[in-house]
Amino acid sequence: MPPVPFDLHAATPATRIGLGLAALGRPAYITLGRESDLPADRTVEAMETRSHEVLDAAYAHGVRYFDVARSYGRSEEFLAEWLRSRSRSDDVVIGSKWGYTYTGEWRTDAKVHEVKDHSRATFERQLAETRRLLGSRLDLYQVHSVTPGSPVLTDRALQDELAGLAAEGVTIGLSTSGPEQAAAIRSALSVEVEGIPLFSSVQATYNLLEPSAGPALAEAHDAGRTVIVKEALANGRLAQEAAHSPLGHLARETGTTTDALALAAVLHQPWAGIVLSGAATTGQLNDNISASGAHLTPGDVEALSSMAETATAYWQHRATLPWT
């Protein structure tokens, strides 16, 4: 298996926190509260400026993993320009994803914002697009939103192409989504090319409302894969719905923000290697970073675990979130 490009023992407070640009690389996304988070005029220039502000803040705090995707609008472009203009050193680790094509045409009211396709043709096209922007700075390339029926789990020719990229020094990973994340993760763990495991990292949705992938992620960690957690704040739901929840009660009791506590609950999991912040402002980023110092007692963890929904209910609700 190729080495995983994450130093999980680096001596910075934010070692285990990464920054994802899903909410900053395009004008519309499903995160709640965007109206107050982002500039009213979401031009490319305004969104790039905001992206660079948040990237600067994250780097200053010690964040060293940055996550983009072909479908995140211009996220790769924004990140590439930030890397170039700031002359960032090799301590920055860059992960991107292929498998969705951005179709929103920089509109908040687009009928379809992204289209999924895990074919070899899409991989080849999007890898070339990613390399034009990130070049040799690409450390991790992930298949975007793998489900149990995704071709990447069975298409030997596609797997061979991914293995070829791994042989060039790029770590291969996958992200998952949907109510069957655990099944997709376990299937991915068994994929080998010439006796070598293909996927060295797994990125999955895990939060207080949707913890169903937890056991499979623990298995991935025990099998030597790096685990990256996305949507730890449930696309803003945990903050929006906190008032009468155990999370809101604990936040009031401890004087800690709901976002920091929700992230801390994920960081509490021993298998969680990197937990992504999806901050859209420097204030949110600062708050998210504070999660690394939050303390949860066993009683706190038990109380927060009572918030879990069924995976089916969670993903049905997520599908109704508007793009704003």
UniProtKB/TrEMBL annotation:
PANTHER family: D-THREO-ALDOSE 1-DEHYDROGENASE, NADP-DEPENDENT OXIDOREDUCTASE DOMAIN-CONTAINING PROTEIN. This is Aldo/keto reductase. It holds the Pfam family Aldo_ket_red. It comes from the Bacteria. The lineage of its organism: Bacteria, Bacillati, Actinomycetota, Actinomycetes, Kitasatosporales. Gene3D superfamilies: NADP-dependent oxidoreductase domain. It comes from Streptomyces bathyalis. Residues 49-307 form the NADP-dependent oxidoreductase domain. CDD domains: AKR_unchar. Coiled coil: none annotated.
